[in-house]
Structures are given as structure tokens and as C-alpha cells.
Amino acid sequence: MHLVYPLVVASLLFGIGVYGVLARRNAVLVLMSVELMLNAVNLNLVAFDAWWRDAALHSGQVFSLFVIVIAAAELGVGLAIVLSVFRHRSTVDIDRIDQLSDGEPVPGASGRRP
Amino acid sequence: MSALLLALPQQVGPAPSYGSWHGPEALFCCLGVVAIGSALLVVTARNVVHAALWLVVTLGALAGGYLVLTAELVAWVQVLIYIGAVVVLLLFATMLTRAPIGRTLDLDSDNKVLAAIVGLATAATLVVLVVDAFKSGWVDVQRAPIGSAQADGAAIFRSWVLPFEVVSVLLLAALVGAIVLVRKPDPVPDEDS
Questions:
Q1: CA-to-CA distance for B165 and B133, rounded, in angstroms?
Q2: Residue A86 at interface with chain B, using a CB cutoff of 8 Å
Q3: Partners of residue A80 in chain B, C-beta under 8 Å
Q4: How many Å separate Cα A30 from the centre of its chain?
Q5: At A49, which helix (H) or strand (E)?
């Protein structure tokens, strides 16, 4: 199998993930897009492992296992932060969590802070 | 270093042309099309729960791709952890944050066009770079070492023990951090107690 096929699939998935992170407004959907990007990286690692034929170390596959574990940890902490933000502000709309901005109203974000 | 150089894949003859498709290539391309299509639906769905379910399809197709690329253990870990745990966690978060369960037009930000431009630019740059760099790369899936649980386990517990232990500490820290973050604040103690 050509190495290019998995790499192109991974690149397209990464681009889709970038679009999702930038375009989505709900924090949970942003986390889903981050998972898409991490999976693109995993596909790269697995493809390069098969290309490298590294029977002793299996570096790519072991790294992709580590990435899966770290993604699970990241998602746990990320969702805890999202829940904490929801508890304090009753919203997970990223455009409305703008306390650090310099007061320019975000277009389309109505009812900003109390 | 010499071991690494020796481990470089030995190209046996020229790689077959891009027009000749065999079983693994056709299977992987079908799975890749499914993965990319459902990933597009993940980032464009108007319903949070539908987005999570399309994410399941994407992750399942990618697990099939890992199987084609001889990574058995990674594929099953993907099914167990991603589809089994991560998506369930995302659905729980959806319910707990009282996200709109039905269709809603409010899920996308206003900078959608800019985001599409940036995403397309990223994907185009990566595709051009990767095709230019690896157009002669050939994965011999018949001769690649199978990433079975035995092989991957031996690699992890012989060569990668230290990162493995560090990852376990990281998981513990993430667990404690998540609990601390979502814990309700302590009630103010009474003066006379």
C-alpha cells in the first residue's frame, strides 16, 4: 500500500479538526474536533510504524497508544473545566466567555456579562 | 543509530503505480472516505448528539484503518477507549451542560468562513507536503511486523517502561485534577462549631 494514502487521510482529518476547533461555538464540540486532530496524528504514527517495519521497538504503535491515553486524560480534565465553567456562568458558549477581552462586543454574542 | 539505519525499510523494486489497487489499498481507501465524510459531518452537524454519534463512525473507520496497517492492539484500544469511554464522556458532558439536544442553528461561530479558509489551507499545505515527501513510500502490509498484543506489550514493557510509568502518573494527576475541578466548594464553616 502506498504510504501516501494514510498520510493524505490524516492530513484531511487534521484540516477538518482545525476547522471544527475554529468554527464551533459549543465547548464540547470543540473538544470533539480536538479528538479528530489527535486521531489524525495517530493514523500518521501507525502508518509510519508499518512503513518503518520496526519489529523490536514498535515506536509508532506504542506512541499512538500513549497519545490515546494522554487524549483520554486531556478530555477528562477538559470536560471537568467545561463543567466548572458551566456551573459558574451557565453557558459553554465560547463566544460569550470573554472576560479577558478588552470590551469590544463580540458580534452575534448577545447578553454578554451581567 | 546504526540500528536505526539498518531498520530503514528496504524498497524491493519500484513501488507499484498509483493506478494498481490491491485488497488493502481498496479497503483502506473505502475506510478513509468513510472517516473523512463522517468527520465532516462531526464538524457541521446541527445537533450535538448527532455530532457525537458521527464521531463514533469516524473513530470506528479509523480503527479499521489501523487494522489494515497491521496495528491490531492499537485498533482494539481505539475501540475500547475512544468509542467506549471518550464518546460516552462527551455525551455525559453534553447532557450535564444542558446543551440543546435537538437541532439548533447556534452551534457555529460567526467566523465560519475564516475557519474554513484556515482549515482548507492547513489541509492543502499538509497534503502537498506529504505527497511531495513520501510519494515513493511503500508500506508492505504483508511483511510489516504485526502489532499484536504480544508484540506491542513486549515493546512497551521492555523498551518503553519509563514513559509507561510516567503516563500512569499523568493519568493519576488528571484524575485528581478532574475531581478537584468539579468538586463543589466547601460550605463556609460556622463560627460556633
A1: 35
A2: yes
A3: 177-179, 181-182
A4: 7
A5: helix A27-52
Q: Give the closest of A4, A57, A77 to B131, CB-based.
A: A4
What's the DSSP call for residue B186? P
On whether the pTM is more than 0.90, the answer is no
Residues of chain A contacting residue B115, judged by C-beta atoms under 8 Å apart:
18-19, 22-23
Query: Is residue A87 within 8 Å of residue A76, measured between CB atoms?
Result: no
ipTM for this model: 0.85
Instruction: Tell me the pLDDT tens digit for each residue of A28-62.
Output: 999 999 999 999 999 999 999 999 888 888 999 99
E strands of B50-114, at which residues?
none
Flag the least confident range among A92-106, B29-43, B60-74: A92-106
**CA A111 to CA A96: how far, in whole Å?**
8
Q: Compute the CA torsion angle A12, A16, A21, A24 (nearest 10 deg).
A: 180
Nearest alpha-carbon partner for A27 in A104, A79, A101: A79
Grid coordinates of A78: 477538559
**3-state class of B96 per DSSP?**
helix
Distance between A42 CA and the closest CA of chain B, angstroms: 9
Distance of CA A46 to the CA centre of its chain: 19
Which tens digit of pLDDT belongs to each residue from A51-95? 988 888 899 999 999 999 999 999 999 999 999 888 888 888 888
Establish if B83 touches chain A: CB-CB under 8 angstroms: no
**CB-CB under 8 Å, B43 with A82:** no
Length of chain A: 114
Which cell is B114 given?
475564516
B34 — contact with chain A (CB < 8 Å)? Answer: no
Q: How many CB atoms lie within 10 A of CB A41?
A: 17
Q: Is A12 exposed, middle or buried (0-12, 13-18, 19+ CB in 10 A)?
A: buried
